[in-house]
Amino acid sequence: MVRKSRAFLGELWRLARPYWFSEEKGSARLLLAAIVALTLAMVYLSVQFNSWYNAFYNALQNKDKTEFFHQMGRFMWLAGIYIVIAVYAVYLRQMLQIRWRRWMTDRYLTDWLGERTYYRMQLRGNGTDNPDQRIAEDMNLFVAQTLDLSLGLLNAVVTFVSFVGILWGLSGSLEFGFGGKTYEIYGYMVWVAIVYAVIGSWLTHRLGFPLVRLNFDQQRYEADFRFGLARFRENTEGVALYRGEADEMAGFRGRFGNVLGNWWRIMKRQKLLNFYTNGYSQVAVVFPFLVGAPRYFSGAIPLGGLIQISNAFGQVQGALSWFINAYTTFAEWRAAVERLTGFHNAIADAKQASAPQGLATERTASEVLSVEGVAIALPDGRSLLRQADMKILPGERVIVRGPSGSGKSTLFRTLAGIWPFASGKMKVPEDFEPLFLPQRPYFPLGTLRQAVAYPAAAEVFGDERIRATLTDVGLPHLADRLDETAIWAQQLSGGEQQRVAFARALLHEPRWLFLDEATSNLDESSEHRLYALLEERLPHTAIVSIAHRPGPSRFHEHALELDPTDGGTLRAHEQPVPA
Q1: How far apart are CA 488 and CA 425, in angstroms?
Q2: In this structure, are residues 74 and 52 in contact, taking their beta carbons and an 8 Å threshold?
Q3: Which residues fall within 8 angstroms of residue 21, CB to CB, at 6 or more apart?
């Protein structure tokens, strides 16, 4: 248990520390100092209210009208100051919360997207479930609840220190006889409050500990259900063509069944915990009156003293019972910490694991793309390509051929620098900025203008140029829809999507263009026209294509043959490829 607690605290420190030592540390620490100061001021005002209870209720008991109105005026001042401090304490805490969340979100997005770590995590099978939830929800929970729990704990500690002396002085001593002897306990109400809170906290932990795992699972099941719905929305046409509604419904019901089942388990455990905590809180209301009544009825203290004892006891007991009152939040927070820790470790593992075996890339003054002794493997370690040596000159046209599964697309991924399971050496020109057109183009959310210009900003290309290019690739009906926002991956057919990809190539004019079955959804005449357009518009661009149909071969001068036998080899044909 102690070892697990230490490990958890270490993980928590690794998550929380970076922000407080970042470039924003000055403003962050200043905000935190202001919040702590306001929290301490609220505790100080609580001490003042405690003394006010004594004076106010004594005035009532003595029917002292003058003192009664004096104390009412004092209360107004105290309450007014308390309101202002309480409002700004929340306001500044929310300011710190959103600044911390913004910094963490930017950092994790940078780490996740940087060096294509998101892709490597997925390939290695350690991508953690639902990284979108980790970034969007868990970081919000972590920041908000870390501040709530830490400031709540600070408030509890300062409140205990402030009121324990008051309660000690007010409670006096308790005498009782046992075994023919008389015993006296000084400050007995302090000890009663401590014992009451310790027993209550222990029982709360025993009853509520399963909520940590249950809350962890609930967030995962909820995210799985949302992911299934989003995936269905992105593939509605495929489901409709397969008539797969029944299977999708079964999947939805299964995932939502996990949500419901775990929710019921949370409800049952929460019900048990609520029975206890509510009972504990109700008993705490009358308990100080019960233990303070003997001194009041004996005349040792007036009514105001009894009320002051009740308030001081409540403050001490409440401070000691902070863990009980915050347990549900603590369970949710700990689950969020564990999920973020898993995400953080998965990012670190993906970067560390892929670095040693990655392809060594060297930028040179040469204009030639050169691959020397490259070996490519699958994530499970099986060899896909044992030996690859090739050179591609500027403006050269090369087609890559081989049976399905021989590793053609994986070779492209290696050349793009995103495939971590490769070794060898690749020399590229200094200005090597290749453009890859996959079989299924990616479409960002936004306007058609943004989709066509991707990955560049929409403002890079003028509207007239974009419209003319869309017309050239056979999409004149889209030329007047540049400002329209839609989910273009669903709005456009497979052939239209591939035409948009060719439009991107014509707009970007890359010196190195790689096409991975980029015309597979087009008819042969359209395929011929688009390749002819590349040949005409991009005469100095090196074009490397993967294609199973014979049509694209006529536009390429050389061929690379992938032979899957004997671990995979790559052979170059220098002679012209027949049309």
Answers
A1: 38
A2: yes
A3: none
Question: In 294-396, at which residue ranges do the beta strands (DSSP E only) sit?
Answer: 360-364, 369-377, 383-392
- Do residues 336 and 149 touch, judged by C-beta distance below 8 A? no
Residue 377 pLDDT class (50, 70, 90 cuts): confident
Q: In a 3-state reduction of DSSP, which class is residue 359?
A: coil
pLDDT digits (tens, 9 = 90+) for 193-219: 788 777 877 887 778 778 878 887 887
Provide the terminal-to-terminal Cα distance of the chain, rounded to the nearest Å: 72
Closest CA to 301 of 185, 191, 167, 162: 167
Enter the tokens of residue 248. 């999708």
Which residue type is seen at 195?
V
Question: Would the CA dihedral through 294, 298, 304, 305 be positive or negative?
Answer: negative
d(CA 324, CA 200): 7
Query: Which residues fall within 8 angstroms of residue 276, CB to CB, at 6 or more apart?
Result: 203, 204, 207
Q: Containing H/E element for 416?
A: helix 408-416
Which position has the token pair 């609220």? 42
Rounded-to-10 torsion of CA 49, 55, 57, 59: -150
pLDDT digits (tens, 9 = 90+) for 391-426: 889 889 999 888 887 788 888 888 887 887 888 888
- Tell me the chain's radius of gyration from C-alpha atoms: 35
pTM summary value: 0.67
Question: For 98-107, which contacts have Cβ atoms below 8 Å and span 24 or more sequence positions?
Answer: 99/24, 99/27, 99/28, 99/31, 100/19, 100/28, 100/143, 100/147, 101/139, 101/140, 101/143, 101/144, 103/19, 103/22, 103/24, 104/19, 104/139, 104/142, 104/143, 105/135, 105/139, 107/18
Which residues, 6 or more positions from 184, have their beta carbon under 8 angstroms from its beta carbon? 173, 174, 175
Which is it for strands 485-486 and 446-447: parallel, antiparallel or unpaired? antiparallel
Query: What is the rounded distance in angstroms from the CA atom of residue 315 to the CA atom of residue 206?
Result: 24
Cβ atoms of 285 and 313 within 8 Å: the answer is no
User: Which residues pair with residue 374 across a beta bridge?
Assistant: 388
Quote the tokens at residue 10: 């270490």
Residue 173 has pLDDT above 60, yes or no: yes
CA distance 560 to 401: 6
What is the spatial distance between Cα 387 and Cα 385, in angstroms, rounded to a whole number?
Answer: 6
Q: Report the alpha-carbon distance of residue 177 to residue 210 in Å, rounded.
A: 43
CA nearest 570: which of 421, 432, 414, 429? 414
Give the three-state DSSP class for 473. coil
Count CB-CB contacts under 10 A for residue 377.
21
For every residue of 118-152, DSSP letters joined together read HHHHHHHT-S-S-HHHIIIIIHHHHHHHHHHHHHH
DSSP 430: T
* 53 close to 166: Cβ distance less than 8 angstroms: no
| Amino acid sitting at position 507 | L
Domains identified in the chain and CATH numbers? 2-355 (1.20.1560.10), 360-573 (3.40.50.300)
Sequence-distant (≥ 6) Cβ neighbours of residue 575 within 8 angstroms: none
Give bridge partners of residue 176 from the DSSP assignment.
183
As given in the structure block, the two tokens for residue 279 are: 């009972």
- Among 379, 476, 444, which Cα is nearest to 124's? 379
